[in-house]
Amino acid sequence: MSKKNLFQKVWESHQVGQLENGQTQLFVGRHLIHEVTSPQAFGMLKERGLPVRYPERTFATVDHIVPTDEVNEPYSDPLADAMIKELRKNCEETGVTFFDVGSGKQGIVHVVGPEQGLTQPGMTIACGDSHTSTHGAFGAIAFGVGTSQVRDLLATQTLALSPLKVRRIEVNGDLSPGVYAKDVILHIIRKLGVNGGTGYAYEYAGDVFDSFSMEERMTSCNMSIEGGARVGYVNPDQKTYEYLKGKPYSPAGIEWEKAINVWSELASDEDCEYDDVVKFDASEISPTVTWGINPSQAIFINENIPNPVNLSGTEETSVTEALEYMQLEAGSPIKGTPIDVAFIGSCTNGRISDLEEVATRLNGHKVKEGIKAIVVPGSQIVSKIAEEKGLDKAFINAGFEWRNAGCSMCLAMNPDKLVGDQLCASSSNRNFKGRQGSPTGRTMLMSPLMVAAAAISGKIADSREIFPN
Amino acid sequence: MSGQAVYVPGDDIDTDRIIPARFMKCVTFDGLGEYLFYDVRHDSNDNLTGHALNKPEFSKASIMISGMNFGCGSSREHAPQSLFRAGFRAIIAGNFAEIFFGNSINLGMPCVSLNQSDRNTLVSLTVEDPSISVEIDLINSTIKVGDKDFLFDIREGARDSLLNGKWDPIDELLSKSEDIEKVSTSLIYK
After folding, report:
1. pLDDT tens, position by position, A170-188
2. Using a CB-CB distance cutoff of 8 angstroms, which residues of chain B are in contact with residue A433?
3. Residue at B60 is within a domain
4. What is the pLDDT of residues B77-111, one digit of tens each?
5. Are A282 and A175 in contact (CB under 8 A)?
6. CATH class of residue range A6-263
7. Which has the least CB within 10 A, A209, A379, A419, B11?
8. CATH entry 3.30.499.10 includes domain A287-466
9. How many Cβ pairs within 8 Å bridge chains A and B?
10. pTM of the entire structure?
11. A38 to A146, A150, A320, A371, A452: CA distances (angstroms)
């Protein structure tokens, strides 16, 4: 039998057939939906009189537009209110399970899927959201799709797709203290570029990914798309099984034993072929911060902001454009850049371990006066666990606002927005122009602990100095 | 297809820039054309800027020309929908982010890749004479402008779908009902 990588194994087991244009008709076993990219798809279905083919394979939650500081409906934003009601109605009419705000299980779709056990090894998973790559942490092939494809999934549970090439990215050795999964993925994107992954699935491997927790793997897989890779995954192992055991939608009893048998065959075969292999040395990675307007424009905390004078061509143009937008001085240290807002949350870094890593170090620290600092748990379950552990109090005592679950200021479709040209130290995934709700707002991406260090200092700081232990 | 073209400069133009998230608070795609590139077309007082898309000479443009990695970031179909609804029928760029490319083809809006030096020539021709007709010939993979011909790239399957008028795969997907069920029952998860 020929040796295969995980991508090939999962792809083959889900192929329905070949389409006329040469693409594959691929079965997508798990479909996740949210309020922003699904209503038009339900509308298209209705227009054609088509039913939802496998309602039991689709799960919904509401995350992008939910306010994080008001609970009662109708929401003050009538558009947001209309969107949640539309999703509720669509789910009721079609029999799709909806983790609604009153369920205690609502949250960011990429946090909810794994914590419910809906995300499992060997699955194909799609969602009308580019950060669906997150679910690859479990050895699933998971990717974002557009709304017409959400329609295709609702109607047929399949998509017309072309297979991806696979690039194995190994990070070997040990990470230094204070260096997190977020720094690893920002470093990978910095080195391979925002479009380096176009046409590829990224297989993350090596000592660092082997030793990462499931939540750390999710942080890295989450940002694959920021490197242009629609899919990012880690081969499943014992940690994957341990995480999933006992989750509400995980297989149980004899089904669990069966699942483990299948899952244990999924990992890429030793000596299988890859289209490309890239290796990084973990010891070379430091806490990383973005200085520009795309996630590859990142440097280590002790480095200086690039100077376009030393560059040429399109690189010079893009650095100049970024520095102008970010109002940063070429060649100066990034450390010490004053901030206005600090945001901890998102599908990248809004999980319990992210919050715990910060909250347990806050004793004796206060958010700098004049800085708005908010913490938005990734889900209601994350929020509940955090409150049981007293993390909410640690944040509140230090001067952070403790909010309800949602996407919040990652993309600012709810009331949490930057104002004017405010600069935000953010644990989210995109630093695009205007991303956080103000057309001139500025974003610097970093790990949650680096965000906390910035909140306390009032400026970009080295978390290893602010939290020496 | 042919039409006038407008150049929107820059690499890595993301879908947040094409359509800012706040305009996605809607349950249909109607009216999205109005918000295309909103934040670069308007200043802080909501007045129109000097952006190419605001210039009367480009108001009839149906082809957009841009740089590398066009449409990166969010998977929002709102981005190609807003382009389409603003009257665009094709995009010429260095290359495209994958999800944006697929979303655009599904709308029947070709996304063709052109190398930088040809793009530069094409841009200067359209800037010199905004009314000049740009013709995209999918059969021969060429862009014709005046007496100039440029060879472009597009994924073969996408080109076939566009040429056969079958860019929307839904009917073909629906027709394989039994094969779909076979795969569904073969999987260990429901």
Report:
1. 999 999 999 999 999 999 9
2. 16-17, 39
3. yes
4. 999 999 999 999 999 999 999 999 999 999 999 99
5. yes
6. alpha beta
7. A419
8. yes
9. 208
10. 0.98
11. 9, 7, 38, 36, 35
